[in-house]
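Summary for the steering committee. One of the milestones for this cycle was to obtain a three-dimensional model of the protein with magnesium ion bound, which we needed before selecting residues for the alanine scan. The sequence and ligand used are listed below.
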Amino acid sequence: PSSSLLPVGCGRSGELEEARDVATPGHGSGARGVPPGLLEKLVYDALVWCSLHGLVVGDKSVQRSGTDPGIGLVHAPFALLPMPFPEGYWRQACELAPIFNELVDRVSLDGKFLQDSLSRTKKVDAFTGRLLDIHSKMLEMNKREDIRLGLHRSDYMLDAETNLLFQIELNTISSSFAGLSCLVSELHRNLINHYGKDLELDSRRVPGNTVVSRYAEALAKAWNEYNNSSAVVMLVVQTEERNMYDQHWLCVVLREMHGVASIRKSLAEIDAEGQVLPDGTLIVGGQTVAVVYFRAGYSPNDYPSESEWRARLLMEQSNAIKCPSISYHLVGTKKIQQELAKPNVLERFLENENDIAKLRKCFAGLWSLDNIDVVKSAIERPELYVLKPQREGGGNNIYGDRVREILIRLQQEGSEELATYILMQRIFPTASCAYLVREGICHQDHAISELGIYGAYLRNKDKVIMNDQCGYLMRTKVSSSNEGGVAAGFAVLDGIYLT
Ligand SMILES: N[C@H](CCC(=O)N[C@@H](CS)C(=O)NCCC(=O)O)C(=O)O
Ligand SMILES: [Mg+2]
């Protein structure tokens, strides 16, 4: 049998049919087929563990849970046991992180490539157009970002048909869950330490997850390069943020381990309280800002008025270290992902043939809608494609028949709107049985997973201070659901069990 788990007979969510023990390699009794008596104990202990260790989010049914800490906490949605994942692919994904980090930095320096690649999108996608306007202003000002900090997460799926690992996307802004993902790995190790014998699991197969401390280290090192001991790290946050504890974990580690203070401001507050001094220093609410760390600003919803755009421009014009800079932000768009997948494009940015080959190996099919053959094929077989607008934050991608409808409409209209989308080959990972725990209830489901590998890159002029793989995020969702996304409410936080 393949190293991935043989799916145990899974009841529909909410039903806990008598689980049959299925012996599988590396998993003894088949961790996914947990005997009911044991299951209740695992779920109970896991829920207690979450509550005691801050694996929590704001409860959307409690009004103040997104603004006032300590109010309306509920455990983050999680998978009860870690998803089996073949070690070879794990290593491959980890190896790619520093190469993608370097690629982002190189592409970010090619202002013409960014403007040209996104020029047609600009005409029909106002949000991307506003980002490009800010980028243009920086080019006109000949603005240089000597110190550059990238906190990225590259997301992958393991395609069952080809047994290849494919990149789904590269996030260069607001890569969430550095805090909570570490806690999920600890939860799984804790459960397996206590129940591993019954489950026939070995907690040493759960890789350590260090991303929260590595990300805090990267922020602290960037703060250090700015070299002003009274300056702070400023998080740009949404006014309502139910994922605030994931952010607070980072800030607490930053303060406790590195003695660096942080403040939280919305874009509107930065517009009201911010100014840039003649020497480029960014002052917000009387505080000098060394590093701007965006946990908002990636979606049109974050810019309800001109005030928020003024704030974005103000920060970009300053000498604060932006994470991400407007250039890094644009490199992470899906349109750029598609352009980089074209033949001979990577060679413009990287020299090492082996690195280029490693990147290409994980590129799924990516096309612009100019490619009429692919559009035709997507109209015939929409289930094999995903139609993606230039949007971040989850819940924006288009699947199935809607792909066909939109492509036919756009073709008939022959509108420029074609340029707001890219088409991507849809990846089908193997479904396996998982126990998904949401709001205290455990559901046994067929589920598929998406592996995110975090990367941190810090550079000051030609000195690369950090370029590492920092840890991982596993997100698992019921295989029937198209969209992923934990914040968007489809996926749960999971971990990995190396097989
Ligand atoms: N509320 C904001 C959420 C920020 C956000 O949506 N980030 C995107 C990349 S842009 C992301 O990482 N999505 C994967 C996590 C998921 O599945 O929800 C925050 O936490 O700061
Ligand atoms: Mg994303």
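Key point for the committee: Residues 1-31 have pLDDT under 50 and may be disordered.
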